[in-house]
């Protein structure tokens, strides 16, 4: 018989395969990792989150955008990555809603936050407590506005999702005019 693996090992292999990359590390390149870790899918959530932490730890991107974080995965992230990364979220939504998004910025890297706290823009018409995390940083002396969100899901909320995306585009356009 072939080599059979447990479901958790299969999840780990799948996560690592999706995160694999080739090439040399370029110190002039801003490395950003974005990942919906599917925290709402209760099956293997902790295993998936642990492998995500492994990948972040191995690749050491300066910036990480994570979606669908739930309480147990937040605890794992802070425990595993809290010494190496600043972790930002909307505290009110994170403590009152069942999932949220997170921005991580690697400490002691070329990305330097201009503030200790991100700007949070809550989408007022959101039915799913969606918000935009905005953080002004400098990368090698270049000012950058980092944005991350998890836009409204499902077909019935397509109109709101489009409004949220337009808001993000407006903010980016305004930033270009600064």
From TrEMBL:
<keyword id="KW-0539">Nucleus</keyword>
<keyword id="KW-0479">Metal-binding</keyword>
<keyword id="KW-0227">DNA damage</keyword>
<keyword id="KW-0540">Nuclease</keyword>
<protein>
    <submittedName>
        <fullName>Tyrosyl-DNA phosphodiesterase 2</fullName>
    </submittedName>
</protein>
<keyword id="KW-0234">DNA repair</keyword>
<dbReference type="InterPro" id="IPR036691">
    <property type="entry name" value="Endo/exonu/phosph_ase_sf"/>
</dbReference>
<keyword id="KW-0460">Magnesium</keyword>
<dbReference type="GO" id="GO:0005634">
    <property type="term" value="C:nucleus"/>
</dbReference>
<keyword id="KW-0378">Hydrolase</keyword>
<dbReference type="GO" id="GO:0005737">
    <property type="term" value="C:cytoplasm"/>
</dbReference>
<dbReference type="GO" id="GO:0046872">
    <property type="term" value="F:metal ion binding"/>
</dbReference>
<dbReference type="GO" id="GO:0070260">
    <property type="term" value="F:5'-tyrosyl-DNA phosphodiesterase activity"/>
</dbReference>
<dbReference type="GO" id="GO:0003697">
    <property type="term" value="F:single-stranded DNA binding"/>
</dbReference>
<dbReference type="GO" id="GO:0004518">
    <property type="term" value="F:nuclease activity"/>
</dbReference>
<dbReference type="GO" id="GO:0006302">
    <property type="term" value="P:double-strand break repair"/>
</dbReference>
<dbReference type="InterPro" id="IPR051547">
    <property type="entry name" value="TDP2-like"/>
</dbReference>
